[in-house]
């Protein structure tokens, strides 16, 4: 079974390389057609995307999926379509006095096959956002999604089925890093933890694959002494509670003037319960994605209590 998956993966990779070589410099119209096809497929499968993420999370708010996964992707496609001609245009450079009267131009070219690795917290957004940019530049894209969101992986395969020659989801299995690291991808885009990011960088080092790492860390929020507490709490709240608090750019800790600490805490708690109602079982809030993550959060709470 493992060998079969290795063969399929190598075939996917080689087919994409072959397709690229057959047409390395497409027209604006051809790129536009692929982006429009992706947009149509996302919108046609919108309800199925909601359902898939809901299954993976045991419950995920449709609002969270809409605002965090669907809307940004449609916006990115529209933005790419709006700017595509400009991005494809060659640009002039000054050759300098010693090379006068020569002319220097930069012609932008695709890289070839790009590998995108995405985490579980925003599986549609964090896989398709970089992929759209790579597709606009006429690269081929293979996406590795998280094992934590298997239902979303299935719907992604369906969404991409009409343009799978250009962008596709790859199968993943335990111990497959050695197989992937041997493939000569032309660029790797990874979103996730610093710990895993180090492993990813080591895995592709033998091929000197260029990498872009977006690693989660800490997001402090500083509150000035003259600010309205009610206003700042609302701003912090929307980014903290989105996706059931599972978002890497959420405020991790607050620097607040000592004389406003108690007011901030009371206002935040009051605002939270007003947003979610006092019924803990109303299912308005996205669930923690897995038992592993639930235990991790509980451990953090216990650690904070001991300190």
Short summary:
The protein has 307 residues and is α/β, with parallel strands linked by helices.
CATH superfamily of the largest domain: Aldehyde Dehydrogenase, Chain A, domain 1
**Mean pLDDT, as a whole number?**
87
Please identify the structural class as seen in this structure: alpha/beta
Shape: globular
Write the element-wise H/E pattern from the N-terminal end onward.
HHHHEEEHEHEHEHEEHEHH
Largest sheet: 5 strands, parallel
CATH-defined architecture of the largest domain: 3-Layer(aba) Sandwich
CATH class of the largest domain: Alpha Beta
Can you count the helices?
A: 11
Question: Which fold name corresponds to the CATH topology of the largest domain?
Answer: Aldehyde Dehydrogenase, Chain A, domain 1
Question: Which bin fits the share of residues in helices?
Answer: 40-55%
DSSP summary, beta strand count? 9
What percent of residues are in strands? 5-15%
Uncertain segments are none
3D architecture notes:
The protein is of the alpha/beta class and 307 residues long. The protein folds into 2 domains: 214 residues, Aldehyde Dehydrogenase, Chain A, domain 1; 87 residues, Aldehyde Dehydrogenase, Chain A, domain 2 (3-Layer(aba) Sandwich), CATH 3.40.309. Strand 8, helix 9 and strand 9 form a beta-alpha-beta unit. The chain is globular and about 65 Å long. The strands form 3 sheets. A 5-stranded parallel beta sheet has the order 5-4-3-6-7, with helices on both faces. Helix 2 runs antiparallel to helix 4, helix 3 crosses helix 4 and helix 4 runs parallel beside helix 5. The mean pLDDT is 87.
């Amino acid at each position: 079974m493992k060998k079969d998956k290795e063969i399929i993966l190598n075939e996917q990779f080689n087919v994409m390389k072959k397709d690229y070589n057959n047409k390395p410099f497409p027209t604006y119209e051809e790129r536009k057609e692929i982006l429009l096809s992706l947009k149509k497929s996302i919108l046609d499968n919108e309800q199925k995307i909601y359902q898939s993420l809901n299954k993976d999370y045991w419950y995920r708010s449709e609002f969270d999926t809409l605002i965090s996964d669907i809307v940004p992707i449609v916006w990115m496609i529209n933005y790419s379509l709006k700017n595509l001609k400009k991005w494809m245009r060659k640009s002039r450079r000054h050759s300098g006095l010693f090379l006068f009267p020569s002319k220097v131009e930069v012609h932008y070219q695709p890289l070839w096959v790009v590998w995108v690795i995405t985490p579980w917290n925003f599986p549609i957004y964090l896989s398709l956002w970089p992929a759209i940019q790579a597709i606009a530049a006429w690269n081929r894209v293979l996406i590795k999604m998280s094992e934590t969101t298997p239902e979303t992986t299935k719907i992604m395969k369906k969404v991409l089925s009409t343009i799978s020659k250009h962008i596709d989801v790859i199968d993943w299995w335990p111990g497959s890093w050695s197989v992937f690291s041997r493939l000569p991808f032309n660029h790797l885009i990874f979103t996730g933890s610093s710990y895993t990011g180090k492993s990813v960088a080591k895995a592709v080092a033998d091929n000197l694959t260029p990498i872009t790492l977006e690693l989660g860390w800490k997001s402090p929020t500083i509150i000035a002494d003259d600010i309205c507490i009610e206003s700042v709490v609302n701003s912090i709240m929307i980014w903290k509670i989105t996706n059931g608090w599972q978002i890497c750019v959420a405020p991790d800790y607050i620097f607040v003037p000592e004389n406003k600490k108690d007011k901030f805490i009371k206002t935040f708690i009051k605002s939270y319960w007003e947003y979610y109602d006092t019924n803990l079982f109303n299912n308005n809030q996205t669930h923690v994605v897995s038992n592993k993550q639930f235990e991790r959060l509980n451990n953090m709470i216990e650690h904070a209590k001991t300190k």
